[in-house]
Specification:
The complex is a heterodimer. Chain A is an alpha/beta fold. Chain A has one domain (7-139): Rossmann fold. Chain A has helices at 16-28, 41-54, 74-83, 101-109, 122-139, and strands at residues 7-12, 33-38, 62-65, 92-96, 114-117. In chain A, strands 2-1-3-4-5 form a five-stranded parallel β-sheet, with helices on both faces. In chain A, helix 2 runs parallel beside helix 3 (74-83). Helix content of chain B is 40%, strand content 23%. Chain B is built from 24 helices and 32 strands. The longest helix of chain B is centred in the middle third of the chain and has 51 residues, at 512-562. Chain B starts with 24 loop residues before the first helix and ends with a helix. The relative contact order of chain B is 0.06. The chains are: A alpha/beta, B alpha+beta. Chain A binds chain B through residues 14-18, 20-21, 24, 28, 39-40, 68-71, 96-100, 102, 118-123, 125-126, and chain B through 537, 541, 690, 693-695, 697-702, 704-709, 711-712, 728, 731-732, 848, 856, 858-861, 863.
Chain lengths: 145, 915
């Protein structure tokens, strides 16, 4: 992996508006990345399995996962990822509007990489996108192959 | 006081219809080719204190002459046409002129001092300029005494004039200070009786901004003159002829003649220094008591910024050098004046902006409170220099000051929205606008209005400003009616009477600054509203949370009462009666089983406790205590013992402070009855809280995010982008509203106005099918229903809503392709009656059968549903003692069921009817 290769995010988000906010937020921060977006948990698992079948290079670098998702919810997706041999190493960031302690605990039990609550404040949202992007693109860049 | 070159309606045909009156000064000032074929204005006479010759550039042969030229130059001949001009001069003078003309820079030598051949040694001052192919020579008298002063002595006062002015002007903080200084200096230098500095404003109207005069001269400072006072042509002339003297308004003009063999046309006098003015203007000056007059043009950025006007009560001639000095003065001060004006406008604009910002902030923060609006309207009126303002929000209209009739206001709003939402519309001539739209002007207070500026801020918000005509000074001499009849009455020469008339003219035109301020108002309003929107959202979140919690508490309380987990009582002290017995349930009684008195209470209280309890209660009544609290045992209907805690509070007291009524509640301390159900119910409520907080928060994140993006867009000037972003906010807010509505409906199921009555299911089916027929048609689907369905007992609104929910769902998710079919029917079982809604669509995976009934669980990623529909269907079934479920497998369609206990069905109704 070259240093300048864009970081590939798989964004699992059913709300178009939130997906757009996130992508536009990253654009504004001029963060070099690639975002693939799916709308529900089932599609997310499908995408991950397809990618895994093509080899690890096809896998996203980070999965951004909402909790409340149609069909298969985010916690279930996380569970499947952690139990799958070829996917369990993936960094998974929960990104949700839920402030339920239960959701959080469950996600932590399932070894979520981080758990972010979607902030109401726009400025905080922007800050979150910035931190998130920087964290995964610069500071915590997956090791080169 | 302007110097008109033309008479209204004679040389300015555009003014005939009045339409161009509002034309901007900028238009007037557009550089145009002057001269050429436009002979209409080429006045053909010169003033008689000088003479004019026009000679060819090649051999200085005279091709045009003024009638007095020969005599003025001392030549004894009727005409000089065809003569070689150099022959009339002394040798060196002739050679000098020929050389200058040949070199092409003759104007640099102005004024030339030419020595005539006869009589020898006589000199004349000659001002030379080129006009097309000829060289124009204009002669003015020069007596030997003043010769010296012109050549040498004039330099000192000229230097002093300009230098002194520059020095002093540094101390001038404002335009009027500078203009007064210029007028004073210029009057001192020229000796004229009165000097005015006249400035043109953006809309072409003029204002006297500086003045200096000897005693007895009528003041002009601050007077305004309409744009039409100085015609476009006059303006052109002022641009080319930067200093022009009228030595004697009563002197007869001298006509011009052209050499017969000359192939060119008549002479263009545009740049002639001797050129005559229009008779009207001369008459005007004369009537005003002015005998001599001079104008100096103030040119800045190649535009006519203003004029310095000189008036004298006697004939006055000013030699060329002095006039040149005045011209130089004009060139020097014009940029300074323009600079002062710009600075003044900048400050003024800044003040206006600040006023607008402050007012709007105030307005929006007060949420358009009535008493604030009036204040704000006053400020906006002042900022926009308007006489009236009209703020329209949706159907609400706020008005202040002088505004036109409602019909006209409405038409203006249409006009601005025709231009787009973020636009403004200017009606320079409101009467014309009214005529064009074939409206009635009306007789109301709006009679005096002249122009309007309308700004559209949002889809449903616009602000219109109205201006009244400015008081303008119209010279009577130019008003035909006055000239014809009563001129002498209006003007009293030598007296105190004013030669001018004040009357309503046009409105101050909407300047570029006004439009900029309008745009600023729109943006400020937009961003203020955005900020406010955020604040409202904050409040909304807080309110929503409290409402949700309140509703849940209420719901829980209700449930607790229902299952007898908690009881309420109300004690009337005078009657010693317990007037409410919600607590009867707790003991297994039905309401009404226990007598509402102390005796009734004695009957259910534990015999070992009852006396002490009543004693304690009476002690409390005697005391000043606010709260009653006791623990005791009670006897259930089935004989079991319940330990309870009872608490009460004095709610009403009489005038002396004795308690009248006590409200209280009690709850079992160690009850086992219903506790499992309570725990279940409370878990359910917890999960609802979570679901609500998540699903309402989600659109809030969207709102905030896009409001933020929109604000960034606005900051960057991207109005279009901001609008798109705001439409997303709209959608999210709308969705939030729908969710809240649905939740409210759901929370009311089984709680508010819940009445079980006999319902004709077939009738309900038909209604549901009818309500959703349009949606079915849109999706190319059909709805069939069982027309022989039985009667049931139930709450009509909630069952009807549940049916509609199910049918709507079937259409939405079950009829993906045209030709789909939805079936509504009923199955009778032994213990229950089952209503179904069936579709033949793609079906639902068994994994989701349970989940879809959960609040906010949505199968599709679409945002059309609120996630409340099926949850409320289930709730409806539950409150009727039944349940809801789905049977489906992928590809096989889906059937949604609601079961109602059989005892709620026909048999029970029949039984009821037979009673």
């Amino acid at each position: 992996m070259k240093a300048n290769r864009p970081v590939h995010f798989l964004l699992v988000e059913d709300e178009d508006a939130h997906a757009e906010l996130l992508v536009r937020g990253m654009e504004r921060e001029r963060i070099h990345n690639l975002v693939t977006r799916v709308r529900d948990g089932e599609a997310a698992l499908e995408a991950l399995r397809d990618a895994a079948a093509k080899g690890s290079a096809a896998l996203p670098d980070v999965v951004l996962l909402d909790i409340h998702l149609p069909k298969v919810d985010g916690l279930e997706v996380l569970r499947v990822i952690r139990e799958s041999e070829e996917l369990s190493h993936l960094p998974v960031v929960m990104l949700t509007a839920s402030n339920s302690a239960q959701d959080r605990e469950r996600a932590l039990e399932l070894n979520v990489s981080s758990y972010l609550q979607k902030p109401l404040e726009f400025d905080c949202f922007r800050q979150m996108v910035r931190d998130l992007s920087l964290y995964w693109t610069v500071w915590n860049r997956p090791p080169a192959d | 006081m302007p110097e008109p070159e033309s008479v209204r309606g004679v040389e300015e045909p555009e003014n005939m219809d009045g339409k161009t009156q509002s034309r901007r000064a900028r238009d007037h000032r557009e550089p145009r080719e002057v001269g050429g074929g436009e002979q209409t204005y080429g006045l053909t006479s010169i003033q008689d204190h000088g003479a004019l010759l026009a000679v060819t550039g090649e051999d200085l042969r005279v091709v045009h002459e003024s009638a007095n030229a020969a005599s003025f130059l001392g030549v004894d001949a009727p005409s000089l046409l065809g003569v070689k001009f150099a022959d009339l001069l002394e040798g060196p003078s002739g050679a000098e002129l020929a050389e200058a003309v040949a070199a092409g820079g003759e104007e640099l030598y102005n004024p030339l001092i030419l020595r005539l051949a006869t009589p020898p040694g006589r000199a004349v001052s000659c001002v030379v300029h080129r006009s097309e192919t000829v060289v124009v020579l204009e002669f003015e008298a020069l007596d030997p005494d003043s010769l010296q002063s012109i050549v040498s002595g004039a330099v000192a006062p000229l230097f002093e004039l300009v230098n002194g002015l520059l020095r002093e002007s540094e101390g001038c903080g404002t335009l009027s200070q500078l203009a007064d200084l210029v007028a004073r200096r210029a009057r001192h230098f020229t000796g004229f009786d009165r000097v005015l500095v006249y400035a043109f404003h953006d809309d072409g109207h003029g204002e006297v901004v500086g003045e200096s005069s000897t005693e007895g001269m009528e003041p002009f400072l601050g007077l305004h003159y309409p744009a039409t006072d100085i015609s476009r042509r006059a303006r052109e002339l002022y641009r080319y002829d930067r200093v022009h003297l009228i030595a004697d308004v009563d002197a007869p003009g001298v006509s011009l003649a052209t050499f017969a063999d000359w192939p060119g046309g008549a002479l263009d006098l545009t740049r002639s220094v001797l050129r005559c003015h229009s008779p009207n203007h001369l008459q005007y000056l004369s009537t005003m008591g002015v005998q001599a007059s001079m104008s100096v043009s103030l040119i800045h950025d190649d535009e006519l910024w203003g004029l310095i006007l000189f008036h004298h009560r006697a004939v006055r001639f000013l030699p060329y050098a002095a006039r040149a000095a005045c011209e130089l003065l004009g060139s020097v001060v014009a940029p300074q004046m323009a600079q002062h004006e710009r600075e003044f406008e900048r400050l003024q604009q800044q003040e206006r902006r600040e006023a607008v910002d402050g007012a709007l902030g105030h307005l929006v923060r007060s949420n358009f409170a009535e008493d604030i609006i009036d204040e704000v309207m006053v400020v906006l009126c002042q900022a926009f220099q308007a006489a009236g303002v009209c703020l329209r929000r949706g159907e609400v209209e706020h008005r202040f000051g002088n505004v036109p009739r409602a019909e006209v206001r409405r038409e203006l709003v249409y006009a601005v929205y025709d231009q787009g939402v973020d636009r403004s519309f200017v009606a320079e001539d409101l009467r014309e606008f009214v005529r064009e739209r074939q409206l009635e002007w009306g007789e109301g207070g709006a009679a005096g209005l002249a122009s309007a500026l309308v700004i559209a801020a949002f889809e449903d918000m616009s602000i219109a400003f109205f201006r009244e005509p400015r008081v303008e000074t119209i010279r009577w001499a130019r008003d035909p009616s006055v000239v014809a009849g009563s001129a002498t009455q209006v003007h009293q020469p030598g007296g105190q009477g004013s030669p001018t008339e004040k009357r309503s003219g046009q409105a101050l035109a909407w300047s570029a600054n006004d439009l900029v301020l309008g745009a600023h108002l729109r943006t400020t309003l937009l961003s203020t509203m955005l900020l406010e929107l955020e604040a409202i959202e904050d409040r909304l979140v807080v309110r929503m949370e409290s409402v949700t919690r309140g509703a849940l508490k209420h719901g829980r309380l209700h449930a607790l009462v229902e299952i007898g987990e908690i009881g309420f009582w109300e004690f009337d002290i005078a009657k010693r009666e317990v007037t409410d017995q919600h607590w009867s349930r707790m003991l297994g009684f039905e309401p009404g089983d226990i007598e509402p008195s102390m005796e009734g209470f004695r009957a259910v209280c534990h015999p070992d406790d009852v006396d002490r309890v009543i004693e304690t209660f009476d002690d409390f009544l005697e005391s000043e205590e606010l709260c009653y609290r006791d623990r005791f045992r009670m006897v259930r209907k089935d004989g079991g013992i319940v330990r309870v805690e009872s608490r009460g509070q004095v709610m009403h007291r009489d005038a002396e402070g004795h308690p009248l009524r006590i409200l209280g509640m009690q709850y079992p301390l160690d009850s086992d009855a219903g506790s499992e159900e309570v725990r279940h119910r409370s878990r359910e409520l917890e999960s609802i809280i979570h679901a609500i907080s998540h699903d309402l928060k989600s659109p809030l994140v969207t709102c905030r995010g896009f409001v933020g993006l929109a604000r960034e867009g606005l900051d960057a000037g991207d109005i279009e982008g901001a609008k798109v972003d705001l439409s997303r906010v709209d959608k999210a807010a709308e969705r939030m509203g729908r969710i809240i509505d649905d939740l409210l409906v759901m929370s009311r199921i089984g709680r508010v106005g819940f009445v079980k009555e006999p319902l004709d299911l077939a009738e309900l089916f038909r209604e549901a099918a009818e309500v959703l027929a349009p949606r079915a048609k849109a999706r190319g689907a059909t709805i069939e229903f069982d027309t022989s369905a039985p009667l049931v007992l139930g709450d009509r609104p909630s069952i009807s809503r549940a049916l509609e929910n199910l049918v709507a769902n079937a259409l939405q998710y079950g009829c993906v392709e045209p030709g789909g079919k939805v079936e509504i029917g009923v199955e009778r079982g032994t213990s229950e009656l089952r209503i179904f809604v069936r579709d033949d669509g793609p079906g639902i995976d068994a994994r989701f059968h349970k989940r879809i009934f959960k609040l906010f669980a949505r199968l599709e990623g679409d945002e059309s549903g609120t996630g409340v529909g099926l949850a409320s269907v289930e709730r409806v079934a539950q409150v009727h003692g039944g349940r809801a479920w789905v049977e489906s497998s992928p590809g096989e369609g889906a059937t949604f069921w609601i079961s109602l206990p059989a005892r709620e069905s026909l048999a029970r109704i029949r039984e009821g009817e037979s009673k």
